[in-house]
Write a structure and sequence with these properties.
The chain has about 375 residues and is an alpha/beta fold. The protein is about 40% helix and about 20% strand. The strands form 2 sheets. Strands 1, 2, 3, 4, 5, 6 and 7 form a 7-stranded mixed sheet that branches. The longest helix has 22 residues. It is globular.
């Protein structure tokens, strides 16, 4: 049985095929994978590239799993995709404009090319449904929460949940006995406080724009900036949305969103690149310190995602900023870090782990579980 996973990120789509037997994955590593990137504003190009990718597959696909970033107040479990689900996702496009439109296109392409193959939607927001109300609600007029459903949803849930499970395995302790801070750092980035295997707080909010600084997204900023620009500089809503989603974060400061390239320029002496890294690590460390406050104690801080797994510099700078918590890295272990390892020193107040994000295998497993439950 072949499970195709389509994972739409903010700048690319990753496609993987997993082999399953008797309702279980044979391996958490895919038997095939590929990645395509595009200009975010060109959805026609996205559709063409996804269609061509699907047509090129030399596998008989039995089920397709989609990472869907926003499930709103309706979807807290993986669901079989039908027209009602597609209609609901279309209603949520404005809340996740870098992801949801491409996910809908991917669903449509699969329907056109594979026709009756079952498709399962797996939601990034679902893991955070366990957050207490005090973590969800914003200090805004309460009627906005009641009437408009304005509250913190949280994202990257698939990655946070996987990171927590792997941390428990590395630490050789039951997940329900651990308090963890998971740092998913990719082009998008978010932190999550996990207690007993459940999300109790996360930095992304009503949309994926909230929280720490990211590759192209601003993260949390003073809302007064927005009202000032609207009233006094006559920026349009569309201009502001594009700026905050696509032209802020690392890109806003130094015109480059890829952390590897930003680091290269910073090491070569580029002052704007240095500034971008300083802002990024300052915001990240400050947010980790804040997330600490949602836990009685912290057993481990986990770095995952493309930046979290691969940037020795970011891990080092962030942990140095958090020295007041007692967090300490082993420099040699940090330099040599590979997937799923500890990089903390023996004197550290909490473990520091590097864990390879495997969202795609998690999505494939959710697909198999959904199929088993429906038969």
């Amino acid at each position: 049985m072949a499970v195709l996973v389509l994972n739409a990120g903010s700048s690319n789509l990753k496609a993987s095929i997993f082999e399953a037997e008797n309702g279980c994955l044979k391996d958490t590593e895919p038997i095939w994978h590929d990645k395509i990137s595009w200009q975010k504003s060109n959805l026609d190009s996205c559709k063409h590239q996804i269609s061509e990718l699907l047509k090129s597959l030399n596998y008989k696909i039995d089920v397709v799993g989609h990472r869907i970033v926003h499930g709103g107040d309706k979807y807290f479990e993986p669901v079989l995709v039908d027209q009602n689900v597609i209609d609901d996702l279309n209603q949520l496009k404005e809340l996740a404009p870098l992801h949801e439109p491409v996910s809908i296109i991917a669903i449509e392409c699969v329907t056109e090319i594979f026709e009756d193959v079952k498709q399962i939607a797996v939601f990034d927001t679902a893991f955070h449904a366990t957050m207490p109300e005090a973590s969800k609600i914003y200090p805004l007029p309460y009627e906005w929460y009641q009437k408009f459903k304005i509250h913190r949803f949280g994202f990257h849930g698939i990655s946070h949940q996987y990171g927590a499970k792997q941390a428990a395995l590395l630490l050789e302790k039951p997940l329900d006995e651990l308090n963890l801070v998971i740092c998913h750092l990719g082009n998008g980035a978010s932190l999550c406080a996990i207690s007993g295997g459940k999300s109790v707080f996360t930095t992304m909010g009503y949309t994926p724009m909230d929280g720490v600084a990211m590759g192209t997204r601003s993260g949390s900023i003073d809302p007064g900036i927005l009202t000032y620009l609207l009233k006094n500089k006559k920026l349009t809503i569309d201009q502001m949305e594009t700026a905050l989603n696509e032209d802020s974060g690392l890109k806003g400061i130094c015109n480059i969103s890829d952390m590897h390239e930003v680091e290269r320029l910073a090491f070569a002496g580029d002052e704007r690149a240095k500034l971008a890294i300083d802002v990024y690590t300052q915001k990240l460390a400050g947010s980790i310190a804040y997330v600490y406050s949602f836990l009685d104690q912290v057993d481990a801080v986990v770095f995952t995602g493309g930046v979290g797994e691969n940037s020795v510099t970011i891990r080092d700078m962030v942990c140095k900023r958090l020295a007041f918590t007692g967090l300490r890295l082993d420099s040699k272990l940090n330099q040599e870090a590979k997937a799923d390892c500890s990089i903390s020193s023996k004197q550290s107040s909490a473990n520091v782990l590097v864990i390879q994000s495997k969202e795609d295998s998690s999505i494939a497993e959710e697909c198999l579980a959904n199929l088993s439950a429906s038969t």
